[in-house]
Design goal:
Layout lengths: L1 H23 L1 H4 L6 H7 L9 H26 L3 H22 L13 H18 L1 H5 L4 H19 L1 H6 L3 H24 L3 E4 L7 E4 L6
Antiparallel strand pairs: 1-2
Organism: Kineococcus xinjiangensis
Protein name: DUF998 domain-containing protein
Keywords: Membrane, Transmembrane, Transmembrane helix
């Protein structure tokens, strides 16, 4: 719970700070949170930091995907099919979202054929199917509030994108999306670490009593 509180404060600070920077000079700093393709198409200047927030978000997606796939594979090798399936599912979803942001699929190759709302809706449906499939494991996870926080930030980002007035009045859509990716990344890594680490660590020194450190295994 303490980590969730820290993540909530940090992600809120990031969202507010990014929004404040953008609003201080929208014509200049908006480029940092826009896709390079979108800026180029608009004919605006391309400062060196164009797309930096998007690129940083891609790093978060990719890091989450790598950790989840590795931990999921290890869990399957250990015979934990549900734990492995949960992590492989979230790893695959993270990889899809990374590819979407990195290659601008919703704006470029796919965006020209399929409405952006349909593409984003597909990702939401996939996330919903994953959450419903592994709802028992998720509800037993003590770090679930961190994942829920990511969902709140994503929801605001989608709403601000669909209703521009929301983004103008409150927080910028890309700033809350970045906050969501941060929380998502932290949750995936925590879940992956708990899967990879042994449930019990015994340390024995000569002449010293055994030290038995146990953690609550939320994967069982």
């Amino acid at each position: 719970m303490r980590l969730t509180l820290v993540a909530a404060v940090a992600s809120t600070a990031i969202a507010v700070l990014l929004s404040a920077v953008i609003q201080s000079n929208p014509a200049y700093f908006t480029a940092a949170v826009r896709d390079v393709l979108a800026v180029a198409r608009s004919g605006d200047q391309l400062p060196f930091f164009t797309g930096y927030v998007t690129f940083a978000g891609c790093v978060g997606w990719i890091a989450a995907a790598a950790a989840a796939v590795l931990a999921g594979w290890v869990a399957l090798r250990r015979g934990s099919r549900r734990a492995g399936g949960l992590l492989l599912g979230v790893g695959g979803l993270s990889a899809i979202l990374a590819a979407d942001d990195l290659f601008m699929l919703h704006d470029g190759p796919l965006g020209g054929q399929i409405p952006e709302q349909a593409i984003m809706g597909t990702w939401v449906v996939l996330a919903g199917v994953w959450a419903l499939t592994f709802r028992r494991e998720l509800l037993a996870d003590r770090t679930l509030p961190l994942l829920a926080l990511a969902g709140v930030w994503f929801a605001h980002s989608f709403l601000a994108d669909a209703v521009p007035a929301v983004g103008a009045m409150w927080l910028h859509e890309e700033s809350t999306k970045f906050a969501a990716i941060l929380c998502w990344f932290l949750w995936v890594w925590l879940r992956s670490v708990r899967t990879l680490l042994p449930a019990t660590v015994d340390v024995r020194d000569a002449g010293a009593p055994a030290v038995d450190r146990r953690r609550q295994d939320v994967l069982s």
